[in-house]
Specification:
mainly alpha, 3-stranded antiparallel β-sheet, 13 helices, 34% helix, globular, binds protoporphyrin IX containing FE, Peroxidase, peroxidase
Length: 357
């Protein structure tokens, strides 16, 4: 869809809004028929459809949806509560992509900035609104995901974020938690944000095996990743051991060193274990931490969360992959009982790569 056409749909949507009073909460009915809490948000419904069609293959939880979530993190984390870093969730990673994609921790992210840039240019959104709306939509395409908040109205970013703000899989837990704390996040919030690795794969950790997932259900936003990161590793999925990678329990799966160390560290092990098979906990904590992440450094935004499509639920419960059981778990939390989990029948699986990587 061309820019002119999209703009005219947006204009019609805005021109024909009417206010309705639904009980105690004032709602606005847009010309498109959708309702929202604020007339400003009407302009976003056509953009949501445009992003679904042009970025996410009509609403899939595929490679682009995963990357859009990762991009929102790499954009926003360039921030410090003490000042002196970047503008936070401001879209600088998209607007100043030439600078930020050159940072080592942003390896592979040029794929998604390239994809998003042309789609962004066909909307009227600021770079920050685009990056963080796309992340909310893309994440919501994954069954089991919470419906993420979307706050509207970020100004254009003023500069690229500085280098060395994005954690690397080779970093120690102390350094990762310190970086999160510097951006305003507790250890519990850091673990909650790592729920994102439930819908994730690596392209550049081992470039010989692009699209290698972090769990066996990369198309579902479930707690499987918290379980599988704890399973004893036996092999590397690709070209031997790479920096930032530790032995993986399943063929075709990659285990990040940082995820594994966080699952084992005394500061985070019980937070990690508590996520396992507790879909509600993961959804609630991830949603709250993302709401904070996606508004870092921003103020005066309008709540347009109701433009974000409602994700499909995850039926659950999660299971051990075939041939695995509690005997294979490297339990590091000794103050809480490990949940009882069934095992999928059959031989040990080989996890398929995420297509399109
Ligand atoms: C300790 C902090 C973190 C580290 C060290 C880390 C590291 C990584 C690495 C190395 C990859 C694979 C990159 C590649 O080879 O293509 C990756 C992928 C990913 N990360 Fe993280 N990450 C962290 C936190 C987060 C957070 C907080 C989020 C989101 C809130 C996130 C979302 C993702 C997603 C969705 C992917 C998959 C992208 C795709 O499949 O295209 N990560 N991460």
């Amino acid at each position: 869809m061309a820019f002119a056409r999209l703009s005219s749909i947006v204009a019609i949507a805005l021109a024909a809004t009417q206010v309705a009073n639904a009980g105690l909460t004032k709602r606005v009915t847009c010309s498109t028929g959708q309702t929202t809490a604020n007339a400003k948000c009407c302009a976003l419904f056509p953009v949501v459809d445009f992003i679904q069609q042009n970025l996410f293959d009509g609403g899939e939880c595929g490679e682009e949806a995963h990357s859009a979530l990762r991009l929102s993190f790499h954009d926003a984390i360039g921030f410090s509560i003490h000042g002196g870093k970047g503008g936070g969730a401001d879209g600088s990673i998209l607007a100043f992509n030439q600078t930020e994609t050159a940072f080592h921790a942003n390896g592979g992210i040029d794929d998604i900035t390239d994809r998003q840039f042309t789609v962004w240019q066909q909307t009227d959104l600021s770079a920050g609104d685009f990056v963080h709306l796309a992340a909310a939509i893309g994440t919501g395409n994954c069954p089991g995901a919470p419906r993420l908040q979307f706050m509207f109205g970020r100004p254009a970013p003023v500069a690229a974020a500085p280098d060395l703000t994005v954690p690397e899989p080779t970093d120690s837990v102390t350094s990762i938690l310190a970086r999160f704390a510097d951006a305003g996040f507790s250890a519990a919030e850091a673990v909650a944000l790592l729920s994102s690795h439930s819908v994730a794969a690596a392209d550049v950790v081992d470039p010989t095996i692009p699209g290698t997932p972090f769990d066996s259900t990369a198309g579902t936003f479930d707690t499987q990743v918290f379980l599988e990161v704890l399973l004893k590793g036996t092999a590397f999925p690709g070209n031997g051991s790479q920096p930032g990678e530790v032995l993986s329990p399943l063929a075709g799966e990659m285990r990040l060193q940082s995820d594994f160390l966080i699952s084992q560290d005394a500061r985070t092990a019980c937070l990690w274990q508590a996520m396992i098979n507790d879909q509600n906990r993961m959804m609630t904590q991830f949603k709250a931490a993302m709401a904070k992440l996606q508004t870092l450094g921003q103020k005066g935004l309008t709540d347009c969360s109701d433009v974000v499509p409602v994700p499909a639920p995850f039926a659950g419960p999660i299971k051990f992959p075939a041939s695995f059981s509690q005997a294979d778990v490297q339990i590091a939390c000794h103050t809480a009982r490990f949940p009882t989990i069934q095992t999928v029948a059959g031989p040990a699986p080989t996890v398929a790569p995420v297509p399109g990587s």
